[in-house]
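For reproducibility, we list the full input for the zinc ion complex.
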Amino acid sequence: MIKRSEHFVAFTGAGISTSTGIPDFRSGINTVLPTGPGAWEKLAQKTGGSNSNVKVSMSKAIPSLTHMSLVELQQQGYLKFLISQNVDGLHRRSGFSTYHLAELHGNTNLEKCSKCGKEYMRDFRVRTAQQVHDHKTGRKCDNQQCKGDLFDSIINFGENLPEKDLDDGFVHSQLADLHLVLGSSLRVTPAAEMPQTTAKLGKNLVIVNLQKTPLDSLATLRINAMCDDVMKMVMKKLKIEIPEFILQRRLVLQKGDKNSLLVSAEDQNESPYEIYKKVSIEYGKANNIETKQKAPFSFTPKQNSFTVNLGFYEHYGEQEFKLDVDMAALPLNKKVVYQIQYQVSLQKWISCKKL
Ligand SMILES: [Zn+2]
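The corresponding predicted structure, in tokenized form, follows.
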């Protein structure tokens, strides 16, 4: 079906992240999954808090075989659009194109300006509010003309979904001739109406989930199995290798007036991305060093050539990255972007290229 498709769309739920150690919501108390019962089931059973199941925080989770298969299927041109109900941010972190992704229920690492709509990614959980319907994070938009309040992007029950993601999701569901649901019980609307739209137009709907879903009777094919197992077989049949997860970071240097230097980072769609815990610049001898522990990481270097040391949040154990800089070679008031890659399995930065 994937090979024959012209507009293949995938739809993911919490079930694709359970193999990464993030618990889902609806798995029963006797589930076979290594993460144990889903969060809701646990609340119901009052077993929350004290069990020894494998779990990792969302920031440290490693994208699964399913996440990485989807990255490759999109890059090879098979997958045209991805709709996700997950807030763990793993699709975006896995390197999946943000231009082909709708995160219907938000992203735990993403906050948005309430006035101008500018997006900010952070390498930490952005939500700080305690009340369900309070989304203010306490941070402000860094656009000097705006300075609006930033809001986390998490959608709680009863709240409206982000318009663009919602529209994109429905448009692609109408265009789809194959809609593949992975790890969702399809009980949350309006999200679940998206795969339903494709099926009602008489196109192929395939559902991979361990539990029954309300759309099972509409499905062309219903697979009762773990998503990673299914995707491994699908990729083998397509003769496409599943890539290993490589953490990608985009470093940004900008030379300003009076020979100043701003060190920042961005996501693949150029949204600012807060990824540094500290930044220092080092001239020749190691004891001649200037360190900043908080953004903005702005310096006025004393010499033309030096090394910038970037310190990260280390969710994947990523060590400092060193970048040699020549101020004379940097253009004035223009971003210079480097892409660096970290191989989690080797715990090593493996490449750096200027974009
Ligand atoms: Zn703003």
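The chain has three domains: 8-21+56-108+154-238, 111-150, 246-354. The helical segments are 39-45, 65-75, 90-93, 163-175, 193-200, 227-238. Both points were considered when choosing residues for closer inspection.
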